[in-house]
Structures are given as structure tokens and as C-alpha cells.
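User: My collaborator sent over this chain with a note saying "see what the structure looks like." That's all I know about it. Can you take a look?
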Amino acid sequence: MSSYDFPDDLLQAQRAWYTAYRQLAQEENPSQTTVLRRALQRLSVRIATHPYWATIPGRASAGRMALKQRTWELDPAEVRR
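Assistant: Without extra context I'll predict from the sequence alone. Here is the result:
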């Protein structure tokens, strides 16, 4: 069990990142790949600069890995696609 209490907006941003990444991996339309790459960039910045990381000094690297592990599972909405 994770000892990190991630804020909802950070969890949502990481889940959105994984969703966009998965979509990019399957996309064949060049204009859509550009849109998805830009979305990934924006989400990466939002995740990396989130104020939450300042609340766990010295543990941010481990926290980032815990965030990724916690949000890696597919969203139920994605499974139904």
C-alpha cells in the first residue's frame, strides 16, 4: 500500500497522460499524433510541476514512481472500448 496521499488532480493528470500515451501508440493519423504529443507535453509539465511534490521533500522521486504505479491500471472506460 502506498504511503502517499496524492491529490485527485494529480492522479487525474497522470491517468490522462497514460490514456494519451496509449492513444498515441495506436494512432496512424499524423495530425492526430501531433495533437496527442502536445497533450503529453502539457500533462508532463502539469505533473512535474505540481505543488504536491514540494510537500514531500527528499521523497519526490519515490513518490513519482508510486504515482505511476497507482495510475498504470487501465481506466474502466478504456477497457470497454
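A starting point for your reply to your collaborator: The mean pLDDT is 90.
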